Amino acid sequence: MNTLETLMNTIESGRDEMVALQTLLTSIPALAPESNGEGELDKVTALEGWLKAHGITSLERYDAPDPRAKGGIRPNLIATIPGTSDDERVWVMAHTDVVPTGELSLWNTDPWKVTEKDGKLYGRGVEDDQQGLVSGVFAALSFLKNGVTPSHTIKLLFVADEEVGSKFGIQYLLKQDGLFKKDDLFIIPDGGDPEGVTIEVAEKSIMWLRVHTMGKQCHGSLPNEGANAHLANCDLALRINSLEQTLTARDDLFYPNYSTLQPTKHEPNVPNTNTIPGDDVFCVDCRILPCYKLDDIRAQVRAMADAVEEKYGVKIEITEDQAESSPATPVDAPVVTKLAAAINKAHGKTARTVGIGGGTVGGYLRNAGYHAAVWSTLDETCHQPNEYCVIKNMIDDAKTLAALMI
């Protein structure tokens, strides 16, 4: 039996331990303060204890200050397994925070208690992003359990704040001198497909708009005496969405292959039906192909807002909750070619490169000059009620990571 087979057999035998770690992590909600949570401290503390108890003892914490969170910090944890060489280190980066459960009545199980059924684990966070977290941990553990030194140092990075902008996670870590090296390989198990063959190398630009329209409140029977802020916003929402038709570029690297500008959240305005609102707020989630500049999109949206202001006699303020864009990772970058080779070595599958509309920590790394690849074997139930992780996917991904680390 060769070394890789030994590592893979060890991973396969760790199934119950993987489930136990998922169960532990799910039981500790790690919600951002923006989601009325306390942050990640309790979850990371539990993870630290679990890692130490299982032989991963080289641990470092990088705590980003955040007075809103428990303990006043947002913890980022790094576990290190030394390799023969400390050049071209292998980073497996997962996030510890999760999103809220949403409407509890839509869940068939307790979202904070793992339920195993038909080869799946159900619970909030089990796929996003605990599947990748657990896969990375057990890939690294397979080396320790067999006394095998990896060819390159393994770095397991557990970041905070991924779900709400990464200010206290990867953005904070990128400011720490000497933490990352240009030749390091960055694997982010936070996106993929059910076959585990798509390697994400590019992301659409993201822009989240908050549109606040101020008019004049009046009685519903006398609209001529007011300025209907909600009506103005309805018009503006349709105009912004119409940019999907005028931005005609297509790029088949992405799905969907066009730019999207979707009105989403709407904040409460008046409490009763017979009052015309003088104040109204809605949000727009924009996912723009990289061939377009965000400044050009901003200019077009502002021109539309100006036209709506004049038509309805209102004032419109547009702010951005998030805006980011990043270059692509070259398809021939070592992190891409070596990950593809590992997928083939572990499972005999041929990988392909793709772009995504969602944002990951990979975008921040790419903007900082690092090549990152986002990959995993997922059914993509993240953020949904009844989120689940396929246990076989978690095991198979650990095997792929071990093939990359060997």
Provide a quick synopsis of the model:
With 406 residues, the protein is of the alpha/beta class.
What does this protein structure show overall?
This protein has 406 residues and is α/β, with parallel strands linked by helices. Helices cover 32% and strands 25% of the residues. The strands form 5 sheets. The protein has a 6-stranded mixed sheet, with helices on both faces. Helix 1 packs across helix 4, helix 4 (130-145) packs across helix 11 (391-405) and helix 9 (334-347) packs across helix 11.
- From the alpha-carbon coordinates, what is the Rg to the nearest angstrom? 23 Å
| DSSP strand tally | 17
Shape: elongated
Helix content: 25-40%
Largest beta sheet: strand ordering: 1-2-6-3-7-16
Strand content: 25-35%
Structural class: alpha/beta
Number of helices, where a helix is a run of at least 4 consecutive DSSP H or I residues: 11
Uncertain runs: none
Oligomer: single chain
Largest sheet: 6 strands, mixed
Order of helices and strands: HHHEEEEEHEHEEEEHHEEEHEHEHEEH
